[in-house]
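Appendix C reproduces, verbatim, an entry submitted by the partner laboratory led by Prof. M.T., so that reviewers can inspect both the input and the predicted structure.
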Amino acid sequence: MNETHPPVHVLILAGGAGTRFWPASRAARPKQLLPLLGGEPLIAATARRVLPLCARGASAGWERLWVATGRRLVAPTRAALPEVPERRLLVEPAPRNTAPCIGWAAATVARDDPEAVLVVLPSDHHIADVPRFLEVLRAAVASARGGAITTVGIRPTHPETGFGYIEAEEAEEAAGARGASPRRVLRFVEKPSRERAEAFLASGRFLWNAGMFIFRAGDMTAAIRAHLPALAEGLDEIDRAASLGAEAEAEAVERVFPRLPAISIDHGVMEHVSGLAVVPGDFGWSDVGSWQSAWELADKDARGNSAPEGSVLIDARDNHVVDLRARPGDAPGARRTIALLGVEGLVVVETDDALLIVPRDRSQDVKLVVDALKAEGQDRLT
């Protein structure tokens, strides 16, 4: 990025408490804190791949990386991202959906530089082609610097009914074209039926909404003032307290944040902003939404099995086995051996206190197990 431009900041949204990856994910250890694809937690991978956007001069970029999370997740989030300065953690006293935390971040950045660009990203997605991803984000940053609140839309590969869609003004480029240029957004569409999703795919005008937003900090605070005045009033109260010092600001956040309107940035702002832009992207994106998608992204053997080293797999196909009992440094003999015989299409996940076995094609229903455990009063397992 040109050094004469205002800086780019990144806000990672990390307050979720997903249930789709039980028993690996729990209320105190949601999806973004898990190494679901091997290696580091998803949130750490998210942070490292966007650091080049934040880097400026000799800075590595960590000073311009913000994380919004809940109080119960502060310790594990800091453990996953020790490089993020503590003052860059926006700790929400209560969950209020995405508009309040994005507005809080925008207002905080705008105090120093309302022209600074803020890139808002989910914490728990997978990106296969990082250079291409950064190319698309840089195009979105350029769009935002020109005054357009901008989003990134994923070029759909199939008629998905589990995502929201964005309709762009112009048709997609010819097959094989990969230009990253902004288009005017016509509308946001909620998760469609299968028939509508097929029509969206055929039209070439629709993109998946991946929850990525890019804007100048001052532009977002102005948009919130126009479309969510109650939220703007609360953020102003926090801002006034911040002028009195960090302690006064912290007290105001505790007092004000729980009564802010609970609404998503999509419904509260994006669907009402004129001149909204979208940059289409095709960079191997996945929201890693279930054990099924984790299996799709995992390394597999010739029979489609993803399993820990040392597993015994006989006449077994297309299974996803995860052993979270294993500890770094354990000798092979200290770990339990997992054997699958004559089965296919299963997810098997073992933790210290739970074992899940489910057909892969029903992995979206894992949350039903969590609901049943809560109904039985076994909250320690959720």
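Residues 166 and 188 are 5 Å apart (CA to CA). Additional entries are available on request from the coordinating office.
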